[in-house]
Amino acid sequence: MQRAHNFGAGPGVLPVEVLEEAREALLSFGETGVGILELSHRSDAFVAARQEAEARLRRLAGVGDDWAVLFLQGGASLQFHMVPLNLGAAGDYVLTGVWSQKALEEARRLETPTARPHVAATSEPTGFDRIPGALDLRPDAAFVHYTSNNTIYGTQWHHLPEVGGAPLVVDASSDIFSRPMDFSRHALVYAGAQKNLGPSGVTVVFVRRDLLARSAGRGLPPMLDYAVQAKNDSSYNTCPTFGIYLVGLVARWIEGAGGLPAMAERNARKAARVYAAIDAAPGVFRGHARPEARSQMNVTFRLPDAAAERRFLEGAEARGLVGLKGHRSVGGVRASLYNALPEAAVDALVDWMQEFVARGAH
Ligand code: PMP
Asked: Which residue CA neighbors atom 14 of ligand 1 most closely?
């Protein structure tokens, strides 16, 4: 069985070495004689794996014990709700796409006459093709929320928002650990694992411990309370064991490959090649993101019409290039170039783009 080149936006490609190790662990995890899917979340062997995963994430993030690292369920979408539930509804939101809009909707659900969310900036008027410039921030905002990489539109922040003293919260689902990020400028970082970290079913949340006081003792549903989850090491109930295990393997793979600087360098190289192929054929390919906002994780582009897009995608599929169809809300083509996507996959995509242009098949 030959593996396809998987450009899917998530769940996305994982490192082969990780999958091979996990395959062994399905039958017996270490010396336990029990498969990883069958192992108690409270067994010594699993607890050690969870602690190791957490330690590796802390190292990659550069955070110490003043942060809690949580492994939760419910996807990034549940974090849209948990953030305002725990920190207060009066957040300032920077809207750069559908995911940040959904985050805002959850805060609106929780608003009270004295705690309302606020839109600090939006790039919706230009079809989410850029990162907004000036932010209209409130001095007393409970937090400022942004989405570091916009998976659907293919835009990415290349600087950190300036927010003064407000706690900065980021949905980093689609670019976490693709490059170094200054966690010390943030207060809460969350990411669904299924793009750069592991499988679906686990969401990693880094939260500065001083923020836990905002929810502690308020009687929130325990599963939705960061303080409860932190106090119980993410094991208030049965934690998503397989996902946590796999996140640990992926973190080890990142460290072994040279850490975040090495990821950033490779990702920049991969993205530059695809953007160059787009820019080389402006009559055929049209990038969605403005050049200064281009994402290194999700490259989005259109062809002249739907028929050309179909021919492009069919030809790609025939060459073993899969997962390239754009998100249903915007259409076109989207090449997701997550950490684990090999450079050979990018070579194959660029070859096909050049062949498509040369053939005049558009
Ligand atoms: N935020 C971003 C940036 C995403 O790309 C996605 C999923 N593609 C989500 C949030 C929603 O994640 P989940 O499906 O884990 O709820």
From this structure: 75
Which two tokens mark 14? 């994982």
Q: Tell me if residue 99 is catalytic.
A: yes
* CA diameter of the chain: 66
pTM of the model: 0.98
CA 79–ligand 1 middle distance (angstroms): 10
Query: How far apart, in whole angstroms, are the C-alpha atoms of residue 123 and residue 129?
Result: 7
Which one-letter DSSP state was computed for residue 130?
S
Residue to substitute in 71, 83, 99, 131 for testing ligand 1 pocket (most ligand atoms within 8 angstroms of CB): 99
What is the C-alpha separation between 41 and 47, in angstroms, rounded? 7
Cα–Cα dist 152/332, whole Å: 11
Phi/psi at 284 (5° precision): -110, -45
- Strands 203-208, 67-72: pairing kind: antiparallel
The pLDDT score that the predictor gives to residue 361 is: 61
Q: Judge whether 67 counts as a catalytic residue.
A: no
Read out DSSP for 271-294?
Answer: HHHHHHHHHT-TTT-EESS-GGGB
Q: Which residues contact 302 (CB under 8 A, 6 or more apart)?
A: 285, 286, 288, 309, 331, 332, 333
Return the ligand 1 atom nearest residue 97 CA.
3
- Cα 119 to middle of ligand 1, angstroms: 20
Sites in the chain below the pLDDT cut of 50: none
The yes-or-no answer on residue 195 being catalytic is yes
Any idea how long the chain is?
Answer: 362
Complete DSSP assignment for 75-117: HHHHHHHHHHHHH-S-EEEEE-SHHHHHHHHHHHHT-BTTB--
